[in-house]
């Protein structure tokens, strides 16, 4: 049996925290820890209604309290585009909508956070893509301001990442090996000094690269 992933759950509403813990506790893939000092927790799940200053401050604190740095995963009721970018800039590796936070979805998100580095809801990313596309077409393109610095392959990989695809799916879609896709993602992260896949997608969206 694969080793269970230690997970620490935090929040500002005890009822919300208890609800997430109740969903994760029976799962054989997860072991809950009560505090960061009790056992190294590679993933910290923070549950709240929205991204506010408290959440951003907590995310920064959690990232600074553990070595190696914990992956912070948000579970939220509402999220707008600016809040998503602010959360990722604070070090959050992924976001799950509370409406979609089934035990299976939470476990998958935790696993993705530990292996791929991050997870974003395709629905949320889709909304960002629409806004960025509008900005590109109506504001940037008429002024000739688009300069991505990305190869065609890198652009394609980022677009599929933004749709929520995993490395295996991207490799199959683009007819490349999984190693090639992993190397492509690694190159993008290094070149733009990005933390993880979620940060790469957010960066590309914000800068109009995809």
- Terminal Cα span: 40 Å
The CATH class assignment of the largest domain is Alpha Beta
Number of helices: 9
Strand content: 5-15%
Rg, Å, rounded: 17 Å
Number of domains: 2
Mean pLDDT: 80
From the coordinates shown, what is the CATH architecture of the largest domain? Answer: 3-Layer(aba) Sandwich
Strand order of the largest sheet: 2-1-3-4-5
Name of the CATH homologous superfamily of the largest domain: Response regulator
Structural class: alpha/beta
Coarse morphology: globular
CATH topology of the largest domain: Rossmann fold
Tell me roughly what share of residues is in helical segments: 40-55%
User: Sheet with the most strands?
Assistant: 5 strands, parallel
Oligomer: single chain
Total E-strand runs: 5
Describe the protein.
The chain is of the alpha/beta class and 210 residues long. The chain has two domains: 5-119, 3-Layer(aba) Sandwich (Rossmann fold), CATH 3.40.50.2300; 124-206, Orthogonal Bundle (Arc Repressor Mutant, subunit A), CATH 1.10.10.10. Helices cover 52% and strands 13% of the residues. It has nine helices and five strands. The chain has a five-stranded parallel sheet with strand order 2-1-3-4-5, with helices on both faces. Strand 1 (5-11), helix 1 and strand 2 form a beta-alpha-beta unit. Residues 143-147 have low confidence and may be disordered.
């Amino acid at each position: 049996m694969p080793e269970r992933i230690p997970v620490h759950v935090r929040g500002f509403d005890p009822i919300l925290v208890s609800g997430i813990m109740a969903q994760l506790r029976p799962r054989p893939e997860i072991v809950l820890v009560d505090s960061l000092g009790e056992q190294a927790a590679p993933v910290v799940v923070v549950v709240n209604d929205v991204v506010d200053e408290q959440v951003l401050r907590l995310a920064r604190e959690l990232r600074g309290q553990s070595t190696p740095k914990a992956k912070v995963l948000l579970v939220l009721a509402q999220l707008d585009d600016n809040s998503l970018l602010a959360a990722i800039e604070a070090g959050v590796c992924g976001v799950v909508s509370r409406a979609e936070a089934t035990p299976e979805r939470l476990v998958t998100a935790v696993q993705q956070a530990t292996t791929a580095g991050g997870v974003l809801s395709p629905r949320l990313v889709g909304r960002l893509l629409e806004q960025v596309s509008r900005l590109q077409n109506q504001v940037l393109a008429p002024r000739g301001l688009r300069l991505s610095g990305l190869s065609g392959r890198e652009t394609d990989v980022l677009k599929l990442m933004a749709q929520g695809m995993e490395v295996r799916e991207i490799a199959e879609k683009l007819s490349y090996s999984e190693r090639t896709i992993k190397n492509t993602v690694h190159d993008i992260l290094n070149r733009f000094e990005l933390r993880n896949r979620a940060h790469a997608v957010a960066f590309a969206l914000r800068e109009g690269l995809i």
